[in-house]
C-alpha cells in the first residue's frame, strides 16, 4: 500500500459516519443559473447510487464537484470521511472518475493503455501487472487485451475507459452517463461490468437519463431535475410515491358488466371500468392479484382472450414529481 492510500484519521471529519461518500447541501451557480441547488446524498460501501435526470438537470456539475474538478459555491463533499476539494490530491486518490469523453490511445493495445495509465498512477511493476489482469477481467476485455484500441467497438472503448478509472482500486467509482451513444449489445456489456463492481465492494455513483439503467443497477436513486434532488430511494420506494397502484387490462367475450360487478367485490381491486370487450382494473400488487382476478372473471362467465399488467416505473415517478417526461 502506498503512503497516500493509508487512511489519515487526523483529517477525518468527526461526524462523517461509515459512508464512502457524503454529499452535503452542494450549490453551484454559473452566472444567473443555479446548476446545482442544495444537493445532498450518501453512498455506502458496495452500494450503487444513481443520479437520474434529463439533460441539463445538474448531474455533470454535481459529479464535477464530488470529484474535486470544480469548487462548490457552498456545501461539502466527504470521501472516506475527508473533505474533497480541487487541491485535495490525497482525497482524489480514493475516487476513480470515468468521464463521458474517452481518454485512451488508439495506437496502443488495451493492455498497453492500462499499463500506461497505471504507471501514471505510480503502481509498481508487479502490482501493475496483477492489477491490469484483474481489471481486464472485470471489464470483460481479457480476450481482446492485445488488440489495438482503434479496432475496438465504441462499447469496448467505454469499458476500457472504465478500467482506467479502476486501476488504483478506488473506494468510489464515478461514471458519467457511460452508455450514451453505444449500441444495445455494448450497453449490455457495460452494465455487466458496472454490476461486477459492487460485488467487489466498491461504492459507485452512476449518472444516467435512462430509467432502465437506474432500475437495473442502482440500490438507491436520486431523481434530479433543475439542480435539485426531487426524491430519493430504492426503485420500489420511489414508485410508491405515485400511489403504488398497478393496472390490469382484461379482454374477452361474455357479459362484461356481470364480470365487472364480480371483480368489484375483490378487496385488491380498487376500480373497474368497462367497455364492450375490455375491463380496465386499478389494483394493488398486480402480480399477486392477477390469478384471483382471472379466476373471478372466468367464473362470472367471461371468456378471456388477453390479460395485460402495467406497473408504474421510474418514468411515471419522474412525471409525477416534475410534470415532465424524463426523455426529450
Ligand atoms: N461551465 C458552465 N457554464 C455555464 N453554464 C453551465 C456550465 N456547466 C453547466 N452549466 C449549466 O448548468 C446546468 C446543468 O448542467 P449539467 O451539465 O450539470 O447537467 P447534466 O444533468 O449533466 O446534463 P447533460 O447530460 O446534458 O450534461 C445546465 O443548465 C447547463 O447549461
UniProtKB/TrEMBL annotation:
Keyword terms, alphabetized: ATP-binding, Nucleotide-binding
Superkingdom of origin: Bacteria
ATP-binding listed as a keyword: yes
Keyword Glycosyltransferase on entry: no
Domain ABC transporter: residue ranges: 21-251
Annotated Gene3D superfamilies: P-loop containing nucleotide triphosphate hydrolases (3.40.50.300)
Any one GO molecular-function label of the UniProt entry: ATP binding
InterPro entries: AAA+_ATPase, ABC_transporter-like_ATP-bd, ABC_transporter-like_CS, P-loop_NTPase
Name this polypeptide is given: ABC-2 type transport system ATP-binding protein
UniProt source species: Haloactinopolyspora alba
